[in-house]
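Q: For a teaching session next week I want to show students how multiple molecules come together into a single three-dimensional assembly. I've collected the sequence lines for a complex. Could you give me the predicted structure tokens for the whole thing so I can convert them for display?
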Amino acid sequence: MKFRGKADNQRVELQMTSMIDVVFLLLIFFILTFKIVEMEGDFSIRMPLSDAAAGSMDDSELPIKLRMRATPDGQLASMTLNDNSLGTDLNLLRETILSLVGNNAGPSVNGKGPEVEIDTDYNLRYENVVNAITAVSGYKVGEETVKLVEKIKFAPPRRE
Amino acid sequence: MRVQSKTPDIVEADLTPMIDMVFQLIAFFMVLINFNQTEANDNVKLPSSELVKPVDKPLDFPIVIHVGQDGRVFVGGEEYTVETLGNRFRSELAVLNAQKDLTDADANVIIRAHKDTATGDVQEIIRVAQDQGLENFALRVKEDRR
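A: Of course. Below is the structure for the complete assembly, covering every listed component.
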């Protein structure tokens, strides 16, 4: 029987080049596809079509009407809440809503509760509407969110 | 004068720390990569609001609509106008109705509109969706942590 001679101190060299190639490719792929995730959330709006036609007024609550007017270039020109002129002050809007809603504020029970109808000019920039929805929906005290009006709907679009 | 011997020295660079680092980087980017970004559209910069919270569970049967700054409407990578959007909603609802125990009212229209777009364009989309029997809408905004 033959024994193979022991190779003394034979160094096995790993071929690193190809691995490093692949690893760098992976790294470049992940760097290029990397995008900082922005947290996103929703304002929920329930707007069934039948609601406008049927006009269910059994809870004897008409929606609070928020009229938003725009300048020709789409900036907020003025706001009117149930015929109270508010200018462009969102804090004033929030306070007015707070005084109007009073104790009824908070999460709506069984879909009831105060409702705000937003009626805007066609060309008003969307950001302004979102700011108004934010002011109407509630406010933050520290980390806590105080909810005011949860039901929000839009009036039919005003054609230019 | 000393003459250096000409035998070539093999200089071996120690690659171990570099490979360690590179693997760390790969692991970092792999963990942070977010494939949900398919929902996003490059034309849309969302407005921000301090009140919204990131959604805990995904909405039932979402129909995501992107509205660009110039009022262009995208659904699923295709461009639509307010007139043609109705057909899209109809085909989405046909898919929905093929599933059991879901009605038209269960669908959620997620509107991702650019912050500078005209609000009227968003209202038109809502009107078209209402005509097709949809009633749940979600205005998607960015969380503002100020």
